[in-house]
Amino acid sequence: MNATPPFKRLALIGFGLIGGSIARAARAQGLAGDIVITARSAQTRARVAELGIVDRVVETNAAAVQDADLVILCIPVGACGAVAQEIAPHLKPGVIVSDVGSVKGAIVRDMAPHLPKDVHFVPAHPVAGTEHSGPDSGFPELFINRWCILTPPEGTDPDAVERLRAFWAALGAKVELMTADHHDRVLAITSHLPHLIAYTIVGTADELAQVTSSEVINFSAGGFRDFTRIAASDPTMWRDVFLANKEAVLEMLGTFNEDLSKLTRAIRRGDGEALFEHFTRTRAIRRGIVDIGQDSAAPDFGRPHAQLAQRPD
Amino acid sequence: MNATPPFKRLALIGFGLIGGSIARAARAQGLAGDIVITARSAQTRARVAELGIVDRVVETNAAAVQDADLVILCIPVGACGAVAQEIAPHLKPGVIVSDVGSVKGAIVRDMAPHLPKDVHFVPAHPVAGTEHSGPDSGFPELFINRWCILTPPEGTDPDAVERLRAFWAALGAKVELMTADHHDRVLAITSHLPHLIAYTIVGTADELAQVTSSEVINFSAGGFRDFTRIAASDPTMWRDVFLANKEAVLEMLGTFNEDLSKLTRAIRRGDGEALFEHFTRTRAIRRGIVDIGQDSAAPDFGRPHAQLAQRPD
Prior knowledge:
Chain A is an alpha/beta fold. Helix content of chain A is 48%, strand content 12%.
């Protein structure tokens, strides 16, 4: 017999990669008595009903949060303020309201003013994902060994924070607490700037006059293809991230530009020693990431390689 | 019974990722009667002898090329000129001399003047690799479905070009011919600029005062870890690439900087429409790369995911 689930009713607003993965993992782990979801598009709602992995699909945000004791917004950052306003009158006292947005300062600013006093607001950000999106893209293992950062505003009920921490831990995540402001700086460098750079270089390659698109695609295994993966991420989500974390992204971009100028100068001057020194230093960071299990040690991310066909005799 | 191998003796100078993969694949495919290799470091030579995958390990470049009918330099671009000069007096008339360098203009400029008239010089570049290096890093499947670009100078014997084409095809590669100059522009955008950008951003992350190294490493799954893979590539090889392809890299870097300024301006002005339009366009390129089999369609490059442990009751 199963233990009592820690939440009676889990409501998810939005069912993309993250929402869909939470639903699948929460169900697998028995974390909620029932799971109710809604999504803005009728097509997504119909697909989720078809998939049969939640208890109920409803048409409105208001209906979704009814009687829920954990509500998680799994929608782009820019949409969270309006949804908070919309669900506020329908929330049960004592409910934990959370989100999964990649920016936390803007989420607190946009959502907190709308939420009633008897509701526990605990913003969260699971640092996990793939380049895929939509209701079919989620899978229950997505959060295993990934970090989930909680940024409870000062004065948040510690018991609510602890319950949300336990929820994410049960999904397989390692949980850390920090301020929203610090979160936004950390993610600006580990996630937002890499995406901006990748989006930029893929766009640059697409527009060149001297090199055709098919050459770019054919010879992409020289390094370029690695960038195309994150430049294939959901455009709405990423538009909102850059608008919501403008200040920290622009600051990191400033530092990046200075460093790029330094390396450019070394190339222009033929300063091989400076290049070698820099390229040696960056190897250590990769080792650190692989050592703590945040990436695969297999060459080429473990991409599959075909077998060698025998040469005809 | 096996067919006669297309080359009596294959000599490889250098036994890193590429040299080691050629040796393994050529042996698996029976492309040479015997395979002789040498490497600059005694440690590498000892390791190759231990691995037992070639017929003979010799101590000098001169000894390696003795009686070979295919010689391939598998060493950093910057070392090719001096090695060409060194081996020139020991080459058999009619031998095909090739290389695997990521830059082709500089290779032709540095090697061609040293080679005797009765030698066929066919520069080559297999667009394949991983972030690993050293004698143990090679594997026979590395070149399968990857492109190998040949850049024979005008007037090269077509029969020699055809023999080298067939050699690379037997290793599993798709072969294309182009001028050295065009090659260097194509690779500047598909390989050299991506590496430069990756090296830069990993360096930037390492130097930040506000975000600790352990935070960068912990939260790298948000995108940053993808960049650390190519920024872990061999420093000597990459130093030489940037010095040897300076002009094309600086030109592509100029275009990249313009594009980055445009996106930066859109962020600063809060122009969500411009960001969304750009982020939508870049998805198509990823699709193109996956469609022609130059990358895996699996989410996250097919990185493995651990199983979800059951919640204790």
